[in-house]
Amino acid sequence: MPALHDKFASQIPRLRDELKAIAKDHAQHKISEVTVAQAYGGMRGVKGMICDTSLVEPDKGLIIRGIPILELTDKIPEEIFYLLMTGDLPDAAALKGLQEEYTKRAGVPDYVWKVLEAMPKESHPMAMFDTGILVMEHESEFRKRYTEGMKKTDYWEPALEDSLNLLAKLPELAAGIYRMRYDKGPRIPYDPKLDWGANYAHMLGNDDKDFYSAMRLYLTLHCDHEGGNVSAFSCHTVGSALSDPYYAVSAGLNGLAGPLHGLANQECLGWILKVVEKFGGTPTDEQLKEAAWETLNSGKVIPGYGHAVLRCPDPRFVAFVDFGAKYCADDDVYKTVKKVFDIIPGVLKEHGKAKNPQPNVDAGSGSILYHFGLREFPYYTVLFAVSRSMGMCSQLVINRALGTAITRPKSVGTDWIKKEVGL
């Protein structure tokens, strides 16, 4: 077993004792109150679940296990998954061990490709990706062990097995779907000499070493975002019923496929491309203001600006801007993204309706992908999905180790609300 398994196993007794003590000594302590607006508004801001892998602070952005995301941009995704699982970055031996596990577990079964090849040619790549994961449910160690019978305290081990098997295969699955769906030629084999992110880039068909770096950064920045976003919460809810990780991750990705969750980066890039096309290249400050006001006055929003939680520039956006300055500084699309960062917040403040006139990650990620020739917009959500699977899997394994209860919030009807408020 990898060092990750042993490291996490050594932490479980302490984590379980801590949970029991908190639940026993502070069971009746209230941590949140719910307003009618929150009940009708998607439960936004309601504190009602636990997530120890990451935190999103309004004035700081994403924090992974206590470390701000901007301090992790030089790490590769394998290090990030280890951090999500254990709270520590791996040493060289532990990192090598995890990479060897991925290599050992890599290889999408042939029957998966046969199913995907039978799907309609015009199928959405996310539907294909999700289908591939569900087809592989046949491989689930958790389902096999549960059927045979095992102790509740052991649930986490086959959940980790399934998670490692999934993560090892997801880049190959995603890359194979890209090449199949967009007629890029035969699938490219996994290269055991490459790391997880570089392998994904390689199997997509782009061996530009700068693209390797871009893919590592993309996968790191999108790895996790607390437990209440649609994909993480959907995965958590399905996993809480003891559905195995294949079912649970699939559920999370079904949520990620929604336009309000995983499609934002392509919408942001689309707006940027229209601006570049309209002005024949990078716009001037005045031209960009003109385009912004035209969008706002038509009743639309400027994609990529504003966030449900953040009240500062998304540090993940900052990371992409910094990356672009090094690798694609002369690209008109990148230069426009950077100029938008300088100009649009002022326009939105003048407009007066944006609570947070600062960019989120989606405002910058698409321009980097576009620069490196990845221009099939519907596929962008699959990239997001490969990354976010690290967060979903780590949260799921931790919850199985702690014996987290099935998710079952209480719902009320509109008549109950009317009586409660005196109508």
Provide structural commentary.
- 60% of the residues lie in helices and 2% in strands.
- The model has no long low-confidence stretch (mean pLDDT 94).
- By secondary structure, it is mostly helical.
- It has a three-stranded antiparallel sheet with strand order 1-2-3, with no helix packed on it.
- It is built from 19 helices and three strands.
- The chain has helices at 3-25, 36-40, 77-86, 92-105, 110-118, 125-135, 141-148, 156-181, 196-204, 209-221, 230-240, 245-256, 264-279, 285-297, 315-327, 332-351, 362-371, 380-402, 414-420; strands at 54-57, 61-64, 67-68.
- The longest helix is centred in the middle third of the chain and has 26 residues, at 156-181.
- Helix 8 (156-181) runs antiparallel to helix 18 (380-402) and helix 14 packs across helix 16 (332-351).
- Strand 2 (61-64) and strand 3 (67-68) form a beta hairpin.
- The chain is globular.
- The termini are far apart.
- The chain folds into two domains: 92-259 and 377-402, Citrate Synthase, domain 1; 264-371, Cytochrome p450-Terp, domain 2 (Orthogonal Bundle).
